[in-house]
Amino acid sequence: MLFNSYVFVAAFLPLTLGGFALACRFGRLQAALFLLFASLVFYGWWNPHFLPLLAVSVGANYAASALIMRYVARPRWQSAILMGAVAGNLAALFWCKYLAAMLWFLRAHGIAEVALADPVLPLGISFFTFTQIGFLVDCRQGQAREPSLLNYALFVSFFPHLIAGPILHHREIMPQFADATTWRLRGENLAVGSAIFLIGLLKKTLLADPLAPIASAGYADPSALTLFPAWHAALAYSLQLYFDFSGYSDMAIGLARLFNLRFPLNFHSPYQAQSVIDYWQRWHMTLTRWLMLYLYNPLALYIARRRAARGLPIDRAARSSLRGFATMVALPTMVTIGLAGVWHGSAFTFVVFGLLHGVYLCVNHAWRLWRPGPRSAAWHAVVARVALTYGCVLVGSVIFRATSLTDAGAMLGGMLGLRGVWLAAPDLHAAVGVLWLVALYAIVWGAPNTQQIMRAYAPALGRAATGSWPRLVWQPTLPWAVAFGVAAMLGLLSIGGTGEFLYYRF
Amino acid sequence: MPTSVTIAQPVLAGVTEIFRAVFNDPDLELTPRSTADEVPGWDSMTHITLIVEAECRFGVLFQAAEIESLHSVGELVRAIEAKRGPAAVSGQWSAVSGQSRNI
């Protein structure tokens, strides 16, 4: 079920809110059970055949966490259980997400002859698998403990984050489950949650979806594109991805808030980033956090400890040497961000996307280590940094979107003008298209983002939003009510022609 | 934040020495309230260096999952103090052998 569908907005959401309010009257247990039931309905709506997979995943991981907690006195047993459980999770992910692609590859190259049906990816498997692996690792390290199966099942499968994140951490959600005030509808949270949801809906329906035909047409045959059409398609997709995922993240955060739960921030104006390191701290922030917690940090710690144990230095000077940089910076960075690329899918383009961003990050870290002086705060330096970062990200997004590396190369070639400058005489339609892109970039680079608009009501966990534009800070006043009433009408009227969220594919 | 009353000064002094060495700044002054945002260069990589240097100096072992939540000097000092306490002996990093029981 899509957040931007009539069945969700007009039926599922009101019924779930009403049912939750009613269940809260009977008690916390009933309310949590009701939310779990509603979440399973939400998940099964698209394809009920995958419900057992979700149930088995939640049940098996809960059992593994219980075993890990039971054998506190036996660390080796705990490690063995953890490894078995992580292997099981990754095997399920591999089976659903990568096996078919691998078999297709083998067949296409005549290596193995296998009969295959079109693979159907269970929705959200990458997200709920990562959420649960994180929980198990924390159990093993003594950082997590959850004796309630109901709490655990709701933590994993709560519908606002189940399909495409944010990737939650138990430490930020379990205390909210334990808070008695969570379990009754609250007017302020209904107002704040609705406003955040509406902003997300507008981003999706009015800004992201109209760009989809331009991007799709361009990427359908990039080898035919000359300079301007290639740039038009590449920029359209870059903006579509931005508003789509930003809109989705807002809607997830807003929906959770309706039920009194605050989600972590997932998106913080990433195209305003002044470096690629900064970009990854603003784009899909909860995936970056997960990768730091469970991949980068353990790997970097292991390498640093090994060096320290051998008496080798681990300080900045050591990282600045070529050998130290390769082992302490480049290796953990490339492994982490390379796997982040593959996390998005089995296509070879995702491998290259990950490696490209790995190279970006290594260059960025090298620059931080070896740059001649401190970073300039002058406005032209800021503009140059943002432009350079966005240029790098744009090249990455071409590889991310293209159906093959050949197509990605063709698109980049078109953008470099290798096939000429223009295909046809410019017309009014093209001029309007360009003006629309300019308006969208003005929003991306100049307008306050959702958490800045909603900053008076702590919209999300994590980084507290600051900013100027005090007149654009949301308040529960009549003018804002009218504005959001109009926004709601626009959003609802534009739902009909909208499509799936791009991140549902991952 | 009750940092000033709960922080152990010897640990804070040791942590300050580590920071001065890692950031190559002998005049660096830290308080328990100093955060990653306030100390120039305290990024994710330097954080790993600080943690491992602290492990070696104080004979403690941090779990990978917990270091991400140590955003200030005070939090780092308190975490070290908690691990050096009698209740947190298991899983300690041996500064002598340089080997961890948990790796």
Describe the structure.
The complex is a heterodimer of chains A (506) and B (103). With 506 residues, chain A is mainly alpha-helical. Chain A has a domain at 270-427. In chain A, 68% of the residues lie in helices and 0% in strands. Chain A contains 21 helices and no strands. In chain A, α2 packs parallel to α6 (149-157), α3 (51-70) packs parallel to α5 and α11 crosses α17 (379-401). Chain A is globular and about 70 Å long. The two termini of chain A are 16 Å apart. The mean pLDDT of chain A is 89. By secondary structure, chain B is mainly α. Chain B has a single domain, classed as Orthogonal Bundle (Non-ribosomal Peptide Synthetase Peptidyl Carrier Protein, Chain A). Chain B has five helices and no strands. Chain B is globular and about 30 Å long. Chains A and B meet through α13 and α14 of A and α3 and α4 of B.
Could you provide a short overview of the structure?
The complex is a heterodimer of chains A (506) and B (103). Chain A has 506 residues and is mainly α. Chain A is built from 21 helices and no strands.
